[in-house]
Amino acid sequence: MFADFFMALRRGVDQLTYWCHTYLPFNRWRHRTDQVLAATAEEGRRYELDKVDVDRRRAYQVARMAVTNRRGEHLSDLLPDAYWVFSPTSCAKTQSGKKKFKSLTERRDGFRSHPQTLAYLMTPSGLARAGVGASLPGTLLGVGLQEQTPPAGVIANRIREELGGGGDGSVDQFAQIIARLHAGPPVVESAEPTDAAEQAASE
User: Fold this and answer.
1) Where are the alpha helices (DSSP H) in 122-202?
2) d(Cα 45, Cα 87) in Å, to the nearest integer?
């Protein structure tokens, strides 16, 4: 928090305002940011990721949707597929009234639960400050969304290459998170017996 404060002081009034909205206990965005943190923790549990730290500055950025980060990057560039869920492009069908957009709440929740958004939020703070966590269209940190999930070690090597070498245990930790998010949440089997099982039991 204090490291961000001194960085904000060096970068001007806009970044200082960003810092105040992110960390001060009495500001209009605190509740919204806390909602993003809580929703991300809930999504993490769905992926069986119980201990995930979320960078509060990124949670604030997701809560605001429209603000850029300290590098001037917008979420539409950092999380292109996820942002499209929130703000889909118009087309002839929507303009003619034949097709409607989902409600704002559905689009917002779809954006926040998208793997690209979760990866961005779950990036360890040290890596987040180094600019790690963004995804290109159709990928999750360089791993194609339609590809088979690679081992966490392969993902960790890609992250270290992006950083120019080095990296500590947070890289391995983050690689495990990316592997889980890419693989998707575990399939929960229904506790109710199927018709076939009921028939087999009756025979």
Assistant:
1) 125-129, 152-163, 169-183, 195-202
2) 26
Q: Where does the chain have alpha helices with state H?
A: 2-11, 13-23, 30-46, 56-64, 75-78, 80-86, 92-95, 104-112, 115-121, 125-129, 152-163, 169-183, 195-202
Gap between the Cα atoms of 175 and 181, Å rounded: 10
Which H or E run contains 140? strand 139-140
Closest CA to 123 of 79, 81, 154: 79
Residue type, 73: E
- 150: burial class by Cβ within 10 Å (0-12, 13-18, 19+)? middle
pLDDT, tens only, 133-165: 999 999 999 999 999 999 999 999 999 988 887
Specify the range with the lowest mean pLDDT, choosing from 30-34, 45-49, 72-76.
Answer: 72-76
Q: Distance (Å, rounded) from C-alpha 182 to C-alpha 180?
A: 5
- Is the pTM here over 0.70, yes or no? yes
* Element housing 143 (H / E): strand 143-144
Radius of gyration of the chain (CA): 20
- The pLDDT tens digits of the residues spanning 167-194 come to 678 899 999 999 999 999 887 665 555 5
Tokens of 159: 């992250």
Residue 56 Cα distances to 63, 124, 178, angstroms? 10, 11, 19
